[in-house]
Amino acid sequence: MVKAVFFDRDGVVNEVIDRGENFFVGEKKVRFTAPHHHSEFRFKSGIKEVLEAVGKLGYLRILVTNQPDIAYGKLPQEQHERIMAEVKNLSFDDIFICFHRRNDGCLCKKPLPGMLLDAAKKWNIHLPSSYMIGDTDNDLLAARAAGVRSVIVSDGRNDHLEPDSRIQDLLSILEIIN
Length: 178
What we know:
Blueprint: E1 3-7, E2 17-18, E3 24-25, E4 28-29, E5 32-33, H1 47-56, E6 59-66, H2 77-87, E7 94-98, H3 114-123, E8 131-134, H4 137-146, E9 149-153, E10 165-167, H5 173-177
């Protein structure tokens, strides 16, 4: 069996966008979102180096991301494809995306562990030896449900969460998994 580091996309791989106090997705008020246009997309500092180093340590690098904004009409398909073309240039071993809305009943949408479990089945991943790096409660809950260790990238919005580990920057993950 192999081990993996699962990465959330928005807030871990790339910056989130502050939409202000009165922005809604569906009927839910949200302040921070994924980029809705390629011009908003910016990689987080150090992500390329972290992915390379994680791979050298013998971990699979798997992206697991909720991307419901297409279904909500906030993100045009063409813009999503342009953003993902950049993400696919990174050294991920695999990418799992859930496009469902929050009330669609999908088993892969975080906080449910479906994407992590699907990856584990596909790649023969030993989940207790693996990690999930995220920035939200959905990432933390998916990690717990899948039986992987949770790591939260601190950003001031998630100080209330209680992960297995907390890091201030992406490079710090290397101290945890090494």
